[in-house]
Each structure stands twice: as structure tokens, then as C-alpha cells.
Amino acid sequence: MEHAEPITRLYTGSDATMRQQMRTMQGHYLTDQAAFAAFNPSFTAAFGTSWAAALDAADAATPGAGRVGELKEDTQAVEAVMEKARTQVQGLFYFVEQAYPGNKARLDQYGKKLYLKARDNHDKMRELLELAAAAAERDKVALAAKGFSAAKLTALKALPDQLTQANTTQEMKKGTNVEDGDGFVQLQNAAYGFGRQVSEAAKVAFVGDYAKQQLYRLTAPAAAGPETHELTLKTGALKTLLLETLLTATSTLRLRVREAEASVSVQLVLAPDAGGGTPFTVTGPEPVLVPAATLGTGQYLLASHAAGPTAVRLHVEVVE
After folding, report:
1. 40, 51, 130, 288: which could form a disulfide with 194 (CB 3.0–4.6 Å)?
2. pTM greater than 0.90
3. Apex CA 230: angle with CA 256 and CA 283, to 5°?
């Protein structure tokens, strides 16, 4: 399984402070929208509406901390099943010793030698449980005579599935926790991304009007150094990437599809759901330098993989 690099915030300060600043800036944008449109027709009233929607989504998102708490609860659920397994297995060993006194070989058939390694390992405990259940089914008459009832055998047989279910739920929650954690940051970055585009445009649209430019001034971006990304794209998939580096007339992207005989279409747009980009096809695996202006206008890179291998990796680097 591939593990993507954690998504970082594009801004300094708290999420709440950023969103408040964006709310204020979005209000100024609605007032100055005609001036922005005169500079760049892409700055429409719909852009302001999309910005407000992005802010609403960012406000409604749940930070990852809440999900971490849920994961702790799930971990406790797995440990509860593990504790039940330890108790039942040790009890089973007792009944086996009663039914077959002094017979170490018989105990080994129940996984006695595996217990120390299995007591804190989910997978090994599952293997031990399955082994023990099979042996107990075989010896159920002798065990029942010593007090290991049919109900105890049924409970023992159910434990492997219970442990599998609890562990699977925990692993799924881990994945959700990571994805949702990144999803929260993505939503915050998306809201901030609108403001960053407007801030950059304001430097030109209101050249000489320092007071107006100050209304659209942003805090410094959190990211430093060359910006690089690697996107994994499945056939037919479309992914949107908000670039951290503000693109200018001289900006260039270095693009490369890592898989041979594969191609990816890329373009730049002002918002994730906006059109107006200029699709450009990148074929791997040799890197290609593409002026940002060739791909369209905006900070959002749209990438799609239409044909070729089931999944491809697109390497993106912003060249100043």
C-alpha cells in the first residue's frame, strides 16, 4: 500500500484565524469584483460564490483530533477481544491438562508453545485460536468430561472472527483517520487558495493603491523550498492539486509520468470546479518543462489519466 506524504497547510497561524481573514477578504472581493474582472475576466461573481462555499466546507470540517479519540476507542475494543482470547486460551490449556495429564505433546497441538508470542500479537493470536479451536473440536468429548462445555467450545470458535472484525475496524479507522486528517487540511487549503489567487491579482489590479492592496494581503505561506508533488492516478480518475507556490508569468512546471507507455492530461484553472484551462498531455518517463501559462490560469492543477496502465504516478515540480 502506498503512503502519500502528509498534506501541509499553506498558511501560518490557526485555521480559525485563516478562515476569518478569508471571510473578510471574500467580502471585499464581492465589493471589488468588477475591478478584478476588468483585470482578469475569470474573476467572476461565481468565483466569489465558490469561495464562500469553500469557506463553509472548511468551517464544517472536523479536525483530525476528534478522530484520534475514536481510534483510541477502537484500539480498546481490539484489546478487549485480545484479553478475552488470552483468558479463554489459558482456561483451555487448563482443561487439556486435566483431560491429558502430563501430555505436553497434546498441549502443543493446542498452541501452548505459541502463546507467549501470540499474547500481544493479533495475527499470531488469531492463528493460535484457530489451531486451538480445531484441536478442541477433535477432543471435545474428553474435554467435556473435565468441564469444558459445548458453550465454551462455541465461544472459542467465535473468537478468531471477533478478533478479525475488531482488528479490521481498527485498521479501517486508521485509514479514515489519516485520510480525514488530510481531508480537513485540504478543505482549509482550498478556502485559502481562493484568497491567495485574489491577493496575487490585487497587486496588479490595484497597482498604486496601497490601501486597497492591504485589504488582500496574506500571511506568509508555511511551505518553504521547491514545491514537489507526486500524484497517483487510476484510469479514468481526475485529481485536483492546489499548488502552494504562486504561479507567475515566468513560472514553469516540470512534469513526468513515471510509468512508460502512459500519459496524463494536465491543466491549470482558477478553482477546482472551473473550466478554462488548456489541457496538455504528459507522456512518461522523461521529464518535460511546461510554462505555467501554457496550461491556463490559476493555482489548481487538474490531472487525469484516461488510458494505459491501471494506475500511474505523476511527478509535479514548480520551477521558479
Report:
1. 51
2. no
3. 20
